[in-house]
């Protein structure tokens, strides 16, 4: 349940032409650049999956996306906060997220490490400040990256258009961990595109959002409509350059 580097595309770059506008020193650059030479960091996320009661897939995706936003908006992540340096180092390089799973004593050990636990309807996801790509804490490094599939017992309800929606590509088959990381990328892109006031309003509301699979007939329009689009680097599961998520925040609609 992992995610290798992706190439998110900001709203100002049309999804059909990902290499047209990014600057030479940008996390959105499609080709290797200076950011690839910088020390690489990763944002760890751990989802709690107990054998007897795994969370529904959509709930896990939404909780992971909110966990990324909670980390971005936490006072420890900005200014002189305890996690600010790690957050800057992480965002100065490629944007990487890795999702691992834990249960029982594994989850309790993960909760003992500095981080933030975010709960959904049933899902629990703990997000940690970024760590070096090859420098994971041992209690996180030993957790499994793959091997668990999550399903929705019932189809999720239609998304509320008044709430931000992270639209997943209907043509891609991603594992739960991969999809959770991609949803986190989409939420992060939306956060970056918002003004300070819009960010504050979203944070104060508790970061409401939905994750839904787009109607195939709408997907093309979503990717070319000026909204933030995530493109995957193609290191795991899917082809390079694949559009995985469109971040449809009401404040970003043209």
Automatic annotation (TrEMBL):
The keyword tRNA-binding does not apply. Residues 1-34 are annotated as: Disordered. SUPFAM superfamilies: Peptidyl-tRNA hydrolase II. It comes from Streptomyces coelicoflavus. This is Peptidyl-tRNA hydrolase. Residues 1-27 have a biased composition (Low complexity). GO terms for molecular function: hydrolase activity. Keywords: Hydrolase.
């Amino acid at each position: 349940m992992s995610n290798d580097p992706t190439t998110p595309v900001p709203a100002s770059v049309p999804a059909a032409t990902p290499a047209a506008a990014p600057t030479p020193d940008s996390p959105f650059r499609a080709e290797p650049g200076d950011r690839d030479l910088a020390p690489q960091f990763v944002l760890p996320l751990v989802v709690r999956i107990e054998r007897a009661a795994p969370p529904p897939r959509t709930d896990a995706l939404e909780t992971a996306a909110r966990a990324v936003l909670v980390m971005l908006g936490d006072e420890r992540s900005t200014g002189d906060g305890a996690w600010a340096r790690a957050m800057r180092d992480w965002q100065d390089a490629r944007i990487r997220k890795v999702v691992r799973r834990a249960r029982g004593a594994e989850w309790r050990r993960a909760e003992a490490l500095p981080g933030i636990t975010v709960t959904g309807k049933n899902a629990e996801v703990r997000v940690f400040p970024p760590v070096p790509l090859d420098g994971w804490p041992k209690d996180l490094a030993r957790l499994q990256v793959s091997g668990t599939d999550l399903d929705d017992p019932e189809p999720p309800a239609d998304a509320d258009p008044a709430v931000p929606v992270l639209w997943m590509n209907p043509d891609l088959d991603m594992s739960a961990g991969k999809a959770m990381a991609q949803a986190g990328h989409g939420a992060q892109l939306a956060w970056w595109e918002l003004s300070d006031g819009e960010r504050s309003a979203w944070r104060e509301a508790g970061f409401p959002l939905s994750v839904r699979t787009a109607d195939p007939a709408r997907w093309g329009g979503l990717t070319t409509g000026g909204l933030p689009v995530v493109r995957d680097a193609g290191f795991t599961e899917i082809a390079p350059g694949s559009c995985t998520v469109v971040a449809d925040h009401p404040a970003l609609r043209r």
